[in-house]
Structure formats: C-alpha cells, structure tokens
Design a protein that fits this description.
Elements: H1 15-29, E1 49-54, E2 64-72, H2 80-92, E3 99-106, H3 109-119, E4 135-141, H4 148-161, E5 166-170, H5 178-181, E6 190-192, E7 195-197, E8 200-201, E9 204-208, H6 223-235, E10 244-248, H7 255-263, E11 268-273, H8 280-292, E12 296-305, E13 307-308, E14 314-315, H9 322-330, E15 334-339, H10 342-350, H11 361-376
Parallel strand pairs: 2-3, 4-10, 4-11, 5-9, 5-10, 11-12, 12-15
Antiparallel strand pairs: 1-2, 6-7, 8-9, 13-14
The structure holds adenosine-5'-triphosphate.
C-alpha cells in the first residue's frame, strides 16, 4: 500500500490518506517489541486503536497526527517508558506523520487473562515437557564451591551470545547466586496476572529464589515447599519460546535434585567437578541420582584446572585428573577443562560474566563448552522413539 509523502498536499479530513497512514503506522508498530514478552506490541493486544487525524483543521495543508492507544499489561510495568518511547519513534518514522500522541493506560483484566492464556498456547501448564522443543540442561555437582554456578551463568550467557534463546532457573535454593553473577541482584520479576515475567540479563531470562526472599534472608524449607517452588518456576514463569532452559542445581543429591528429576525426567545433565581426584566420588554420586530419574548425563566439566603462569609453567592448585576420572566413571566425555582464572572470579563478583571477554582462557573454555553443547543438539534425550514394541 502506498504511503503518501510528507510533503504531499492533503485535504483536511481526507479519510483515504489518513486511512493509508493509519495502516502504515500499524505496520511500523509491528517493529515495537515488548522487552519482557518478546513479541510485537501489535500481537499482544497492546494497541487497541490507531487513528490519524488532521491536527490543524481548516489549514490548507494540515499536519497529520497519529493518535495511538497503548495498553500496558500491568500497572507500573517496568518497561513502560521504553515501550512508549519505541511506539512514538515507530509512529514518527512513518512518512507523512508529523505528530504523535500516545494515550498510555493499562489493559483490563479480561484482556490480560486472555493474552496470557494465548501466550501459553493452550499448552499444558508445564511447558517443558518431553514433547517440547526446548532442551533442558541441569548443571550439577557433587559438592559446593566447585564453581558450578559460575560455570552455569557463563554458559547461559555464552549460549545466548551464540543466538540461542536461553532461560536460566536458579534452582540452587539454599545457595542462590545467579542474580549476583549476572549483575541483577535486587531485580524483581513482574507479575502479569498469574504469570511471572523473569528479569533478563545478558540476553538470558533468569528466575531465582533470591528474587522472592528479603535480602540477607535464608531459605530453610523442606521437601514439599522446595518441590512447589521448583514446579512454580517451571510452570508460572513465562519464558516464552526457548531453545534451552538451564538449571543451576544445588550441589549434592537432595530434595531439589529429586523434584527436578520427577518434573524433568528428559533433562540432560552436566556434572561440574574440580581436578581433585578425591572429588570424583561425590561428583559421580550426583550423576547417579540424575540417572535414576531417567535423565541423561551428557558430560563433565572440570573447573579450576591449571593456571598458566607468566613463566609458561602451569600451577595445578587443585591437582589434576579429577575431570577425566569422573568422566571415565560415568562413561561420558569430559566436555571442558576450565582453568583457574582471576578474571572469571572477578567477573562473578562484579556481575559481568567473563565469557564475553575474548582474552580470558576460562572464558574461551566456556565458549567452547557452549559450542559443544549447542552442536550436540537435543539428540534422543527424552524424545519418543516412535517404535512400537511387538
Ligand atoms: N575457574 C575459576 N577460577 C577462579 N575462581 C573460580 C573459578 N570457578 C569458580 N571460582 C570462584 O569460586 C567460588 C565458588 O564458585 P561458585 O559459587 O560458582 O561455586 P558453586 O559450586 O556454585 O558453589 P555452591 O553450589 O556452593 O553455590 C566463587 O568465588 C567463584 O568466583
């Protein structure tokens, strides 16, 4: 459809020109993406009306003003300013539109509920089923402090940097550290009706128990409560369409590991361990629990491996061989050896994942790990084989 040039003479009240401009504005608005729902505002029932009117009636060549109704999903939507600005800019970019006015309001409850229902696609409540196309990767370790959360956060960012749509669940309920590692400590999810919108960091959608408890508070829940929380993270958090959902598991073989095993028996599991051979025992145990629930252990990451010294020697602070030992016991490949790195630790403390730094050896190792995992594809993990037993 042709759009009149800005300079074309217009008759006051010329509906055909204004109608064409309205269509052009609507088309321009399809480029405005809601940062939380990750879809165009035009597909989210957020633009109930677009009108183009003559702003100066009676003038020989009146200016065209776009009057746009914008309905946000909730009161106090954190992305409100950004969405309004993007709507204004998109409308103003249409040739022939000289003024833009945006009437900002909030959609009514029925519209919002219908929207959430539609976004969920009428799917079963739990979207990450065996049949979904999202790969689920649980990162586990035998004991605490081996760098599991650091590896998980960096891995998620590396996969997102490779173009994958990534969600990250911090299921390490007692030692949640993912928000800090990704620089979003204090970020709160937004509630839209019954759905919870996860904050985003470094292009990863993140949910953590740390976002629901008061700063400094400890989580001292027992099994059923933990199970409900993990279940709620998987059902009520709106991640949108994901290529990969990554879970930072608590270390060891506790209640959460069992819950995740029950809820996501088709998940792939990555085991993080250190170079200490003595740690192979506990690392192996965490994988055994995963296997008991049907999950597939895809490999081992050895973290805190040798640190290259300026003189060319390698400082093996935690010994060597632990990764190979664990991988051999589990009969899976050692997918990465991530060296000790001051940058990795500093990046974690500062909330800036080192994985985006081209010069850090640990970052490079995690980028390669991400590529290996992405290349692996979903494989047959959890997919129905379509074989009918005779
Ligand atoms: N390769 C590494 N080089 C240097 N420091 C590291 C490395 N990996 C992790 N660290 C540091 O080790 C500490 C423990 O890491 P992290 O919190 O990721 O461990 P974790 O296994 O997730 O622990 P937990 O499960 O108990 O929460 C952090 O201070 C982190 O910065």
């Amino acid at each position: 459809m042709g759009v009149p040039a800005a300079s074309a003479p217009r008759e006051p009240g010329d509906r055909s020109v204004n109608g064409a401009l309205e269509d052009a504005v609507r088309t321009a608005l399809t480029r405005v993406i809601d940062p939380e729902l990750r879809k165009p505002v035009t597909e989210l029932d957020m633009i109930p009306s677009v009108r183009v009117v003559d702003s100066a009636a009676g003038d020989a060549s009146p200016a065209a003003r776009a009057e746009i109704e914008l309905r946000l999903t909730i009161v106090g939507c954190p992305a409100a300013d950004r969405i309004e600005r993007d709507v204004r800019e998109a409308a103003a970019s249409v040739a022939g539109i000289e003024e833009v006015s945006v009437d900002v309001g909030v959609m009514d409850r029925a519209t919002r509920d219908a929207l959430i229902e539609r976004l969920r696609g009428g799917r079963a409540r739990m979207p990450f089923t065996r049949e979904s196309t999202t790969r689920v990767l649980a990162v586990t370790s035998g004991k605490g402090g081996v760098g599991k959360s650091t590896i998980t956060a960096n891995l998620a960012v590396a996969l997102a940097a490779q173009g994958l749509r990534v969600g990250l669940v911090d299921a390490d309920v007692f030692g949640f550290s993912i928000p800090g590692l990704l620089g979003i400590e204090g970020a709160k999810p937004t509630r839209v009706g019954e759905a919870i919108m996860p904050p985003r960091a470094h292009d990863v959608a993140v949910i953590s128990i740390g976002m629901f408890v008061e700063p400094g508070a400890a989580v001292s829940w027992r099994g059923p409560m933990l199970h409900r929380t993990v279940e709620q993270f998987l059902t009520d958090v709106y991640f949108g369409d994901l290529d990969m959902l990554i879970l930072d598991m608590p270390p060891g073989t506790g209640d959460v590991a069992i819950s995740v095993g029950q809820l996501l028996p088709h998940a792939e599991v990555l085991v993080v361990t250190t170079p200490q051979k003595a740690a192979a025992d506990v690392a192996e145990r965490s994988a055994v629990v995963a296997r008991q629930t049907g999950q597939t252990v895809i490999g081992v990451v050895e973290n805190m491996a040798g640190l290259a010294q300026p003189d060319g020697s390698v400082l093996e602070l935690f010994g060597s061989g632990g990764g190979d030992e664990t991988a051999a016991r589990l009969g899976v490949p050692l997918l990465a050896r991530v060296p000790l790195s001051v940058g990795l630790r500093e990046g974690g403390d500062a909330g800036i994942p080192i994985v985006t730094d081209e010069n850090d050896a640990a970052g490079a190792a995690i980028r390669e790990l991400a590529s290996a995992i992405a290349r692996r594809g979903r494989g047959l993990a959890g997919k129905p084989l379509g074989v009918t037993p005779r």
